[in-house]
Amino acid sequence: MRYAQFEIELLVKIKTPLVNKFYDLNRVKGRANKQDDVWVVRNHSEIIAACRVQTIASHLFLSTLFVLPQMRNEGVARDLLLYLIEYYRNKSLLPIFTFAYSTLDSFYNSLGFNACQNLPIELKCMFESYQLQGRKIIPMYT
């Protein structure tokens, strides 16, 4: 699907290794697996951004959003997130949770994400583990 000036695609499961290669080349923590919904943004067939939507105990969880540094501030992440929010709203009524870095909370707010005070227990355990690692993150949902 072409959205704005970029092509946004939900990868078929067999192409998951492409995203892991993209993450590895850019030293991104986190690996996609075949249970994840893996989204990519392409510019002239080159992957310029990617993210994963995991199902964790029947909750949708957005993670590992990465945009190439030279493509930042071009609307790539915004287009990708708006597209996948619409996709999941049409598919189910489940909220999408994420752990946003505190420096990006206004960006996520602008897309309709809100701070989440009561995380599902499975996500709360993940959140607490990440906080213990020193990550400055905020639990959010839309």
Automatic annotation (TrEMBL):
What SUPFAM superfamilies has UniProt attached to this entry? Acyl-CoA N-acyltransferases (Nat) (SSF55729)
Query: Residues in domain N-acetyltransferase?
Result: 1-128
**Is Transferase there in the keyword field?**
yes
One function term, GO molecular function aspect: acyltransferase activity, transferring groups other than amino-acyl groups
Sorted alphabetically, which InterPro entries does this protein's record hold? Acyl_CoA_acyltransferase, GNAT_dom
| Domain of life of the organism encoding this protein | Bacteria
Asked if Transferase is a keyword of the record, the answer is: yes
Q: Supply the alphabetized keyword list.
A: Transferase
Q: What is the recorded name of this protein?
A: Acetyltransferase (GNAT) domain-containing protein
Organism equals Pseudoalteromonas denitrificans DSM 6059
